[in-house]
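Sync notes, pocket subgroup
Present: LS, DG
LS reminded everyone that the earlier model was apo-only. Rerun requested with nicotinamide-adenine-dinucleotide included. Inputs:
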Amino acid sequence: MTIPSTFQDALSRVKSLAVSANINTEVIEALLHPKEMMTVSLPVRMDDGSKKYFVGYRCRYNSILGPTKGGVRFHPNVDAEEVKALALWMTIKCAIIGLPFGGGKGGITVNPKELSPMELERLSRIYIRSLADFIGPQRDIPAPDVYTNSRVMGWMMDEYESIKRIHTPDVITGKPIELGGSLGRDDATGRGAYICALELIKKMDWHPTEMTVAIQGFGNGGYHVARLLQQAGCKIVAVSDSQGAIYAEKGFDIDSLWQEKQRSKQVKAVYCSESVCEIIEHSAISHEQLLALDVDLLIPAALEGVINKHNATNIRAKAIIEIANGPILSEADTILHDKGIKVVPDVLANAGGVTVSYFEWVQNRSGQIWTLDEVQHKLKEKMTTAFEIIWQRAEKEQRTLRESAYITALRHISSAIEAHGTRQYFNRP
Ligand code: NAD
């Protein structure tokens, strides 16, 4: 039996939901085919003088609502199928929040931890040189994703500007503030997920001070949601990164954990030496044990496909907030639903990042600079509005939050496609 790719899994979810929501067949068909996909070969001169070839991708999935928008991932598992799936999810996500963007995504198959900073810069720059005519402020706008950050975005913008010989910071978002980045972009994904978590907590009549949380993936998204939930009174009892997972019944102090991770580069090492060791009792656990902890909130914030039909039955959390893109395979949806576990889907829960990226693009294009308060206020407004619409539809139509989120997006995309004219329109007498 062949295992469906991430992209096939993403497509099957769109197809079945679109059919169940009576979405026009032309719209469904439009969403099954990515608009444009580029694969590029990237030769990089390494520090030892040798030349190494990497493979890069960029997908513009659907641009009916505007220029395509989506991150660039540097990871050894990046391939064409993953990039297409991520670009499809971006299409859905932008439509849910009501942003004037279509969905795109990019990536390079590389383990960035094996590259020196200068090799990483050369790789980032040649990626943009190869794609300079494919991207653009009104065509396709990259941003950070797994293992890329504001520094990488700064190199990429600089390369694009050198090629085009114009100042055009709106070609990339998630840049350093000094190069036109927006205040509030660094924690936007985690903050958006935090806003969703608080909305869910309110709806369920739970209380943050009585809640425990486990977080898989202590990177940009995972750290900020952990920090904000801790400030709201939740106890963060488990966190993990690619090297391992740790558990502390009394809860971790997230900021000191983060500082130590920056220094030691892995959460597992954080509590094994020096003063922090003695402060909190903790134990090392496996990745699977973290997912199966008896906590109130489970937050997968690493990679896709970590919850599947094999381990979904072990999940004991009351609710899951998906910061990662696609952490739950569609085969696990029903199992979690039958267990009464609420899932706030990725296309809503991690939309804070693209929302503030949109704010950055607006500021760059209009020459404005917004305060942090303005950005956070606007983000809260966008996220709570989207959450409420999706919650209400789910209640009214007896659907899961994921079904409701997809249907909200599909209806929006459908109206835009229909406005261009569909078969029904042209067949009118
Ligand atoms: P990041 O690179 O900052 O952090 C990823 C973290 O996950 C790292 O700590 C890494 O060690 C950890 N990790 C990797 N493999 C793991 C494993 N098997 N088990 C446990 N931890 C593991 O990336 P990020 O920007 O925080 O992105 C995380 C997820 O959130 C991705 O799925 C990404 O697509 C999604 N996302 C990010 C943004 C954003 O703005 N950064 C926006 C939307 C969605």
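DG: The longest strand covers residues 51-62.
LS: The two ends are 49 Å apart (CA to CA).
Action: DG to write up.
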